[in-house]
Amino acid sequence: MSYYFWINLLSISIPFIAGFDKRLKFYNNWKYLFPAMLATMLVFIPWDILKTKLGVWGFNPDHLQGWYISNLPVEEWLFFIAIPYACLFTYHAFEYLIKKDYLGKFARPFTAALIVVLLVVAVLNPDRWYTFITFLLVAVFLTLHLFVIKAPYLGRFYVMYFVTLIPFFIVNGALTGMFSAEPVVWYDDTRNLGIRLGTIPIEDTVYGLFMLLMNTTIYEWLRSRDNKIRKPGIQAA
Questions:
Q1: CA–CA gap between residue 27 and residue 144 (Å, rounded)
Q2: What's the rounded Cα separation, in Å, for the pair 212 and 165?
Q3: Which end of the chain is more exposed for a tag (fewer CB within 10 A), N or C?
Q4: Is the dihedral angle over the CA atoms 219, 134, 150, 108 positive or is it negative?
């Protein structure tokens, strides 16, 4: 198996096994999780294919199995399953283990400030495609959350996001050459800010936030819809 495949496997293995814990029972939420991951892939996979075609980023064939779907390595497809699964499991575990939403009251002002920062950086870098498109789309999505969705779970999402930044740096570091002579994923630094956190482009942290928030948004929407359907039956009983 390829180096990239092993990274995906190690990322999902512990959360997958822990999801069968009799207290957490994360498998009961698969009916929300897998549709959320699929819907998010419908957005991110075409984006990934386009950016690869344009040379914004690319993949080192020496670290790949050699199987491609739509000119994208199969390992990259698996990435959009392994990482969201691990992070949504963390989100679920924190919800069970930490009853209080500690960041809830700070979520809206933090989101508003983040929107401003992302928009400013995007406007100042229209020629850096990875930066401009990622920061702009995340700003738009956060604005939608702030004024339309008005999600009560943003505080809990941020807790999950900040905590998972630790394994994010390990996994993304492994992909960008922190632990190997050559990276699995390379980037054209003329398309980004050229700022690296170790070997990781800073844009990846925003890209990751976007991917995980989209997964969480759909996951929570499906879960809340299911709960609304169940409530009348419970009341009638």
A1: 30
A2: 11
A3: C
A4: positive
CB atoms within 10 A of CB 87: 24
* Closest CA relative to residue 28, chosen from 80, 74, 92, 82: 92
Residue whose token pair is 């700003």: 139
* Domain boundaries along the sequence of the chain: 3-227
Backbone angles phi, psi at 73, to 5 degrees: -55, 140
Say what the alpha-carbon torsion angle 169, 173, 176, 181 is, to the nearest 10 degrees: 170
In 178-232, the DSSP E strands lie at 185-187, 196-197, 200-201
Distance (Å, whole) CA 208 – CA 139 = 13
> Are 154 and 107 spatial neighbours (Cβ–Cβ below 8 Å)?
yes
DSSP 129-192: HHHHHHHHHHHHHHHHIIIII--TTHHHHHHHHHHHHHHHHHHHHHHTTSSSSS-SEEE-GGGS
Residue type, 137: L
The yes-or-no verdict on residue 108 having pLDDT over 80 is yes
28, 138, 226 from 42: Cα distances, Å: 24, 17, 22
The dihedral of CA 145, 147, 153, 159: what is its sign? positive
Question: What pTM does this model have?
Answer: 0.93
Q: What is the pLDDT of residue 235?
A: 44
For residue 11, count CB atoms less than 10 angstroms from its CB and return exposed for 0-12, middle for 13-18, buried for 19 or more.
Answer: buried
pLDDT at 208 over 70: yes
